[in-house]
Design goal:
eight-stranded mixed beta sheet, alpha+beta
């Protein structure tokens, strides 16, 4: 399969950032992905002892579609989060400072007051944790042929970014990714990914990533047309390496041993 695009999501629930390349560490996470989350009232998350929390405790598209109207960018060098709204810069907040945290909270209190259950507090993941939906799959792959097949069934465009994947790939048959569970994917520089499970889709995919409109029923359409609500696969990083747009991933011939947490 060919990697068409790579994306990271520095803040859970906010917009993607396209990358030209990404260096994936063995046993680690997709770089720069889900580094932060914004809790919607007290979540109970403890950075000293991080435990996976249900995403409903954070601002997220499944419940908060207005987030899709924001365009965000995280600057790794400065540590600033930039939020643009309606074509204008609405906030530039240093994520490592109390002043930045307070500014971010004020922004969301003004932007979406009726959707908040409490203070929209910024949470920062420690080095051993990320705010991913999956407890064990830290790289997500979306097969563009599957999205195109769903488009054909629905008779209308479906933006692949609805599925918030790290890697968008071509070269597989539609839904061929489902047959890769339990197999390794070999990439450049010795990279090896292990496909551990399919991704079950929730109502977040119903939200148009450009407009924020809740204009489709993707899980319902998946179930009606295919008998499941899956689109995409989760992988863990077995051996590190660098991926670039245009690189190839080659499935192994034999299934891997899975130990999914």
């Amino acid at each position: 399969m060919r990697i068409e695009t790579l994306y990271r999501y520095p803040v859970k629930g906010l917009s993607p950032e396209r990358l030209s390349q990404a260096t994936l560490p063995a046993g680690g996470y997709f770089p720069g992905d889900r580094l932060f989350a914004i809790e919607n009232g007290p979540s109970g998350f403890d950075p000293a002892e991080p435990v996976h929390q249900p995403k409903i405790k954070y601002l997220m598209l499944m419940r908060n579609e207005s987030l899709a109207r924001l365009r965000t960018r995280y600057d790794d060098a400065s540590g600033d989060l930039v939020i643009r709204h309606e074509g204008k810069e609405a906030l530039r907040a240093p994520m490592a400072t109390e002043e930045g945290h307070a500014a971010l909270a004020r922004f969301f209190e003004s932007f979406m007051p009726d959707e908040l259950r409490g203070e929209p507090k910024l949470l920062t993941a420690p080095s051993t944790y990320r705010f991913t939906d999956s407890r064990s799959g830290f790289v997500s792959i979306i097969n563009l042929a599957s999205v195109a097949d769903l488009e054909g069934r629905l008779g209308r465009p479906v933006d692949p970014l609805r599925f918030r994947g790290n890697l968008m790939v071509s070269g597989l048959s539609a839904w061929g990714e489902n047959d890769l569970v339990g197999r390794d994917l070999d990439g450049p520089d010795g990279l090896k990914l292990q496909v551990i499970k399919r991704i079950e889709r929730c109502a977040a995919t119903n939200v148009d990533p450009d407009t924020g409109a809740r204009d489709m029923q993707i899980p319902k359409a998946l179930m009606k047309n295919y008998g499941h609500v899956d689109c995409g696969i989760y992988c863990r990083i077995i051996a590190g390496g660098t991926l670039r747009e245009g690189d190839a991933l080659m499935p192994s011939e034999t299934p891997a041993e899975l130990g999914i947490a």
